[in-house]
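Re-run with default settings, no changes from the original entry. Doing this only to confirm the output is reproducible before filing.
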Amino acid sequence: MNAETQQRILDAVDSCFEAQLATTRDFVAIPSTRGAEGPCQDMIGDLMRQRGYEVDDWHINVDDLKDLRGFGPIEHDFSKARSVVGTYRPQTNGGKSLILQGHCDVVPAGPLELWDTPPFSPVIKDGKMFGRGACDMKSGTIGALYALDAIRAAGFRPTARIHFQSVIEEESTGVGALSTLQRGYRADACFIPEPTGGKMVRSQVGVIWFRLRVKGHPTHVAFAGSGANAIMAAYHLIQALQKLEIEWNERAKTDRHFKTLNHPINFNPGIIKGGDWASSVPAWCDVDCRIAVLPGWSIADHQKEIMACVAAASRNHRFLANNPPEIEWSGFLSEGYELTDAAAPEAAFGKAFSAVYGGAVEDLVFTALTDTRFYGLNHGIPSLCFGASGGEMHGFNEFVDLESLKKTTKAMALFIAEWCGVEKA
């Protein structure tokens, strides 16, 4: 790609950026929490049809996925779950094929009164866009779409097949991305513009979700000593799992990437429900938990460690020793992933990065997970993850930095042109 072509594409990103922000605002305004992603998928499908892409919009059948590597159990109503893929087919085959993927699902907003502005009424101020999903990762998805637009606006068209994929369930199981692979979509590389602060994810954790179902023995609180408090028993188990977290972090000190971090393995009791009455000793308590694992760690082996930890803690508890808790696997059963065997797409992206940012792209050792794992682990497709800067993901007042978003869009556009090749339209 010569300097003139490069500059025309960069200028096109600048000229289309206000339109990109308007589309991003519309996308963020849709409250696409788990089970409610349909309107977002409708919007993405319409945007791709307007651009002339072939659109494949299908309902996900869990039975088709349950035996695939990386599948996580679905517990909620999945009857409306859909994946949407738009395919660009070149007139001339001259480059390498590419998957561009974003997820449209977002985590719950939490108490609305703790947001400075409503989470699904996106606001731009001080060079940032605020709203749930603005950073993670709706701005990246729309950025990828406008990166493709910039190539067209500059007077070029890619010379390789491109699949633009909008998936769900990234925040809880990953089965949206898994469904696209089950459907047969493949490419020479995958690129996912998650918010990475302008760094390339080199290695990322996997995640296990599980639920502790703890029993108690109810009685009037006036005679609490004769009962067994399920909530307090659950806390006893949480303390034991915190010790397991310490053990796993010690183990992480031998990992070639994660040894650079102080505390890469994070255990989180994220949801707790229990009891029926303030003056009754609670008879039940459910705790939904998340813990990380590192690349190369066996999910099955670490599930066994979790079960052993809970069993040992139960044996040391007056009531649980004879009434052991149940463990349910409630979502992610996801391996960690390290980007390897990706010299060619990394070199292409390196040229794009240097043209926009200057210098070489930095690596990121990521203590969260992304959908890249499915492409690399299941099918050997090198999967790059790079995106904009922002903050408060999964928190209040989530935002994306707009200048970083523009730069990310430029880098994506140049990467697509370099990897897929372009010709005059």
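The first helix runs from residue 3 to 28. Residues 103 and 170 are 6 Å apart (CA to CA).
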